[in-house]
Amino acid sequence: MSDTVQVERQQKMDSREDTDFFGGTAQGVLSTAMDRPDGPQKVTGTATYADEDHPPGTVFGWLVRATVTRGFVTGLNTDELRAMPGVLLVLRDDRLLRNPAQGQAGRAPVQFKGEVAYKGQPIALVVAESFEQARHAGLAAKADYLDRGGKAVICPEDAEFETPKAKQSSMGDLDAAMTAAAHRLDGEWTTPSMSHVAMEPHSAVAWWEDGKLTVRASQQMLKHNVKELADSLGISPAMVRILAPFVGGGFGSKLGISHESVAAAIAARKLGRPVAVPLHRRQVCETTTRRSESRQRVRLCCDRDGVLTGVGHEVWVSNLPGETFSEPVTQSTPFTYRGENREIAHHVGRLNITCAGSMRAPGEAIGVPVTEAAIDELAEMAGIDPIEFRLRNIPEEDPSKEIPYSSNRLADCLRRGAELFGWSERKPAGTRREGEWLIGMGMATAVRVNMLQESEARVVLLPDGSARVETDMTDIGTGSYSILTQIAAEALGLPADRVTTVLGDSDLPPAAGSGGSFGAASSGSSVTLAAQAVREELAKRMGADPGELTLKDGHAIAGNTRRSLPDLLGGEAIEGKGTIKPGSNARSVRQASWGAQFAEVAVSAVTGEVQVRRMAAVFAAGRVLNPKTARSQCIGGMVFGIGSALTEESHYDRRDGSFVNRDLAEYKIPANLDVPKIEIEFLEDRDAWANPMQAKGIGEVAVCGTAGAILNAIANATGVRFRHLPVTLDKVIAALPRP
Amino acid sequence: MQLRLTVNGTEHALDLSDPRVTLLDLLRYRLGLTGTKKGCDHGQCGACTVLVNGRRMNSCLSLAAMHEGDEVTTVEGIGTPDNLAPMQEAFVRHDGFQCGYCTPGQIVSATAMLKELAAGWPSQVSGDLDAVALSDDEIRERMSGNLCRCAAYPNIVEAIREVAEQEGPA
Amino acid sequence: MRPFDFQRASGAAEAMDPGLRVIAGGTNLLDLMKHEVETPARLIDVNHVGLDEVRREGEGLRIGALVRNSDLAAHEAVRRDWPLLSRAILAGASGQIRNRATTGGNLMQRTRCPYFYDIHARCNKREPGQGCDAIGGFTRSHAILGASEACIATYPGDMAVALTALDAVVEVEGQGGAREIPAAGFHRLPGDDPSRDNDLRPGEFITGVRLPAPLGGRQVYRKVRDRRSYAFALVSVALAVTMEGGRMTRVRLAFGGVAHKPWRVPEAEALLEGHAPHAALFDRAADAVLEGARGQGDNDFKIELLRRTLVATLTDATGDAA
Q1: At the N or C end, where does chain B have fewer CB atoms within 10 A?
Q2: Best residue in C138, C311, C316 for a mutation probing chain A (most A CBs within 10 Å)
Q3: pLDDT above 80 (res C272)
Q4: Among residues B24, B44, B77, which one ends one of the domains?
């Protein structure tokens, strides 16, 4: 074992970071379209996900779920189940969860304690020697319930709504502005409950060794998940390790722990054997989380020149009783456009259906499409081109807080997007037709708040001049393995293949985790800082200031001296620890990622089917760390948007809250044929307020403008404004005359 | 019951105690071949796609017991990290995946799909049932049985198109 | 999935046993067994009994029950002479499923009604006499024609819709001998016994499907659904129309996604035959098809959708050079 020198660097974002560190590094690997280092594993099936790489002797658990909507579990046919072939354990335990933990909760969510709050809620776990035995026994479970008379509420129309004070805001006099305005719009939109549908079902494999719990799990935020799991089990977080080297998609559904890890851990403890609890797709749909449905009233008014004078956005969303999360639909409304008179209102109703939680771009994913549809409508009333209308309404600063934008290239995105897409070819509404197909073009602004979360990483420069990056960050498809490798390679002047990135193990330094589009910026900044600490040590050894040190291709260069890293290291390793912390920049400036999105659709005048024929988008989101993975993130976001605009809706039986289309056949995410050619461009952008890398979030912004662009394209094609998503063919034929 | 089958060229003689075991669960839980993924277990996503006697199918919708004597190829049999098949290389180069969970199914499916296309099998988007030609829409339609929530679809189409063009006209 | 005995048949005769449940492609049966909607005690695997040939029989075609959907859709004779059948098969499921699904099994597939699929919901098809939770529930996929108080489920397939329009015949065989059932009469309406999807008797086994001589003319299968691929039909129209001298001399029509069976209305065909294509005539044909149509709420739109799709399909198929 060689000696290791430990160095450290921390930064809290309390001011503008004017040094563009990566503007001065020499390796030239950051911001290149490098292939994913984890690619070869993923394409050969050697990347292992949660329900894989089982320890010897692993047995299988199946969750038993409530068949009533509300009530108390008073009994279970445990004896009968225990007698079934292979059954090892029938677990009823108050520590089982009622619903998953919300993102970044860091403590146990509401636990079971015998009470059922929605149909399909897990109430027990059956464990058997084989998966087949466990599944059969799980389906044979029969519970007794006591109905304590509480009425289940399924539909938002029947819900009682709370109006949390902190979620309301008001400026000026919107009513007066509406009355006085040259053009005004007051409309109501709805968006449905939606399901995340990560391709990897939530799964956990748990085992205990010397009183310490290890769980392979499909999770997005390990440092929080460890605390949530420990708190749920009533043990110390120090006794919990979570492994998630690969995560088969999350989209918010794996932010917090859910049923499977708690159930597997308890069962493994009781049995003294490893227990796997892979959720069935139905169980994923019913028992994890959903995006809340929403009802949204938007009021907009503008003067004769199309300058907005008022903006109102009032929303009604829902969640289970007692959950504090509520979809922040209006999040970006206050700062996107002008309008000195404003009303933001937020109401949350209590429903007895699947828990609502964060789903990719919580808030903006459903709020921005609606405000963008409303803006489009108002622009049409004012007789102004929708792009020009938006350009006239980009404020100098965040009008709601009177603080500057950290960077805002929306105007450039709009102009470049118009060019890229060929906006000038757009025809008046309802005038372009090819056979039975009505063709239309639409666009929308994309906006998503930018955040930074505390994150820690270790970068070890090894005696042979290679480096290892270690943090408990996850790669849920976002490209963490790629960008963290590139960041470390760039900062240390190494070819990317000399850097190994190890993620997804909660024993590693705690990262921000994947969520809220802050993962790359937060974990990347911590890796940057750790590598900078290593550089400082190298500079010292070169007798130079860090600013005068050049690292390239495994060599350190300062003044007239050039030395190879192994030579400079002299058999030692340098271990840098980096910590990034959010600071006052989160409040002193308005940070967001921006974009302009475009869609062309064809609407069948016969059947009402809507097909997206092409899409384009231009984004400005700070430094792009890897244009290949960033592009993929944007494409993925845009296809997410196609689903929410056209096909996706979770249907709950209005009588008892059964999730009716709880599978991949009937909950319709886009298939390959639904997705057209998509063009993506990134503008040069640097955000010196955001983080030391001057990068911003890219994983969610592309969701935000898509559905709006599609809605507006449908309006351009048909002349009809559809205000209830998804725009399925039944809604279209109801509005279009027979051809 | 006894079951003999060949997986990726290796013959297996198994004592299958429970006929309920699907081909997918046999691969994942009993043979340790976890490259084949379970996304829905009901033939609604395609993550479990394998080749049986050269044809692609959903391994979740087939009992292991129905495959006596069959030759099964999983993603592990298509190529390895050190020796990627052209389709796997193309997926990496075109970033035809993100989270990677549907990817083995996509790659197995794409590999077989190109053979179907080369054999002249039509699809629902073929204008002429007797004159099938490679196009982006043909690839999209034929790959629609493999859902991808990360939605790498456009990159998947590019990757497959590149391999198809290298392999010559369909 | 409940435990079961598994055996492999070496000949079709072994499968003609009322105590055995036949498994071929398994693409629907296993799906249902995993949910314990189907709970057979004894399964017999017929994948190796032969019956996997497509061959000319006079002017017609005989399709073995074990011919896979992919092979049937790609068969050169089917493509050329019965393109409607190719088109219908290719509109369904996915490449992977079509590679496995068989001709006989496809006819035997069961409804996708979500209440049928939920063992905790009441369903007369699953448990006769239990009641129907679909009625009053979420009914987007359900029937607008031929439904009963007991069941509003639809037959979900595409292939059978084409077979119905093409006057195909289903060959079945049991211990009592062989018989033939017209495709149009193979599936049944739910009436007061929705547990029976079709006319097959206990122990009977589908051995094949026969297609009569090609109809020629224009053949179109138009499937309308919520996404462009890999989804069941909301409504589908199978049309074969022959034009002579500007008149429709022969019309065959069948509809999917609207009833417990592929829907065929000979009166509508008769109305069209012998006449020149005309919008008002198409409307009258649609009236005939939709006689007695009734929605369940969420699926009311199917009535209008079927009308529009039918009229447009007829218009397109009889227009321009037809």
Answers
A1: N
A2: C138
A3: yes
A4: B77
Instruction: Tell me what the mean pLDDT of segment A603-619 comes to.
Output: 98
Of B77, B101, B129, the residue that ends a domain is B77
- Which of A582, A597, A613 is the last residue in one of the domains? A582
Cβ neighbours of A201 in B, within 8 Å: 38-40
* Res. C321: pLDDT tops 50: no
User: What's the whole-number mean pLDDT along residues C42-71?
Assistant: 98
**Is A166's Cβ below 8 Å from some Cβ in C?**
no
In this structure, how many other beta carbons lie within 10 angstroms of the beta carbon of residue A737? 6
Closest residue, chain C, to B16 (C-alpha) = C6
Residue A150 has a pLDDT of 76
Q: What is the pLDDT of residue A149?
A: 65
A454 is a catalytic site residue? no
Dump strand ranges (E) for A104-238: 115-116, 122-128, 143-146, 161-162, 169-171, 183-191, 194-195, 203-209, 212-217
Residue that is written with structure tokens 């983080």 in the block = A691
pLDDT < 50 stretches in chain B: 170
Range of the domain at B152: 86-166
Mark C189-205 as b/e (b = at least 16 C-beta within 10 Å): bbeeebeebbbbeeebb
**CB nearest to B40's CB, from A51, A631, A663:** A663
CA triple A505-A507-A510, angle to 5 deg? 85
Range 30-49 of B in CB contact (< 8 A) with A: 33-42, 44-45, 47
Confidence band for C322, pLDDT divided at 50, 70 and 90: very low
Cβ atoms within 10 A of the Cβ of A468, count? 16
**Interchain CB distance below 8 Å, A136 and C1:** yes
DSSP string, C196-241: --BSPPTT-EEEEEEE-S---SEEEEEEE-SSSSSS--SEEEEEEE
Q: Is the pLDDT of residue A59 over 80?
A: yes
Residue C11 has a pLDDT of 95
Residue-number span of the structural domain to which C15 is assigned: 5-45
The structural domain count of chain B equals: 2
C-beta separation of A1 from A438 below 8 A: no
Closest by CA to A48, choosing from A199, A230, A246, A249, is: A246
A135 to chain B, closest Cα gap in Å: 11
Chain C residues in contact with A132 by the CB 8 A cut-off are 1
Residue C35 lies in a domain: yes
